[in-house]
Amino acid sequence: TPDEIRMAVFGKDAEGRKTAIELASRPDGGSRRLDGKIVLPVDLARQLRLAGGAPVAGGEGSIELVFETQGRSPGGALAAMKGSGSYSLKDVRLFNISPETFTRLIAEARDAAGLNAAFAGLSGGGELAVGDIAGSITVENGVAAFLPFRIASKDADAVVTTVAEVAEGKIDTSIILSLK
User: How confident is the model over 90-125, as pLDDT tens digits?
Assistant: First the structure.
């Protein structure tokens, strides 16, 4: 239609990974209706960091998302976004979590100091290897939910759940760790 605006940008990031953004915008009453597709590379060590700057995870891959939304402002449109997609990540690792250290130190603990040392050892370094993961993404009312993934090791099992609030630009990842 004459009032429709379409945009497509394709490229690669500094490491040569595919990036694509396609967007269509058209008037709908007093607001704009948008739909599009996004393909973005992901580097967990660069994009997921603690407030102090240390990375919380490692691994690389991509996110693909098809979406639609409507709103009077960009913030309103992001908050109303609906869509679906997928993620695929390779060599995922969670940093500063060491169930092996905890298991070893808890077995040696004989007093309160030993218990404190075991719990300090759980989050005092090391990493939990996840491997390659992939899953679906659903977006409803501007909240993107990533299909949780499971980790199994000889010392612990974990379930990792990630939710992103698109309009706020916030990501929340929770890890439920079950020590063996």
Answer: 999 999 888 888 888 888 999 999 999 988 888 888
Structure tokens at 80: 């109303």
pTM score: 0.84
- Over residues 5-30, the pLDDT tens digits come to 999 999 998 889 999 999 999 998 88
For residues 160 and 180, what is the distance between their CA atoms, to the nearest angstrom? 17
Neighbouring CB atoms inside 10 A of 27's CB total 12
Q: Which of 88, 90, 95, 93 is nearest to 146 (CA)?
A: 88
**Which tokens is 132 given?**
């390659």
Nearest Cα to Cα of residue 43 among 97, 95, 89: 89
What long-range pairs does 146-154 form, CB within 8 A, spacing at least 24?
146/87, 151/94, 153/99, 153/100, 153/128, 153/129, 154/100, 154/180
